[in-house]
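Attaching the record inline, Q. Sequence:
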Amino acid sequence: MEDELSFMQFYQLHRLNIIRMQNTLAIRKADIMSALNVKDDDLKALTALLHDYVTAIRDCEYMHHLKPARGETHTRTFMMGHFPEIARRNGQDPYNSQICQLPDDPMNRLNDPIRQFLNRVLPRFLILRQNRFSHLPYHLRDSPVERMPDLVDQLARFTLAFVGGASLVIPMIIMTVRPSQVKSIATVSLAVVGVSFFMAVGIRCNNAETLGVTAAYAAVLVVFIGASRPG
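Structure, as predicted:
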């Protein structure tokens, strides 16, 4: 799995910065309301301060909604081990903050195990575009790519489509040949476990998506069992 950028949220510091700027704006407002006339330089400074205030709010909101990083303890331990003088500064714990990472970009990032595996095993000359990389030395062409090539994305989509179709067709064929209730129950159980494992390991998705796909898949097989029963 490729290394992912992770960083500390420092949410409380963002809020503290917003409070400081609110107090500064309140002071500016009181001065402007009490003044008989306002200089142009003061208005320009006010414009810059308001822009910084809105930017600070947006930054705080953005950081607050970033997803937690995997391996938070490892990241914090790494920082404390490499910067012990900061970790022990004033007897505090400055690295005690939520560890976050950037959201996945499904179009350009190798953001799931299937695409990461294909990127590792496919020959470089198949996945690197000539018009973008033909000018590079050979040793750089052979290095791992950071953005997802078209071939890797296409093969990953084909793999998912094939697995999705096979996961339905194969259990149905098994249950159709010499059908029995025990055989159908065992086939559905094994198929649901297999699809659940593939969703958890092969595809990067959240808990709700994993539960929804697994439940829908099990429902399709159960409906097939009911429809194929004689009488």
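The chain is about 65% helix and 5% strand. The chain has a mean pLDDT of 80.

More tomorrow.
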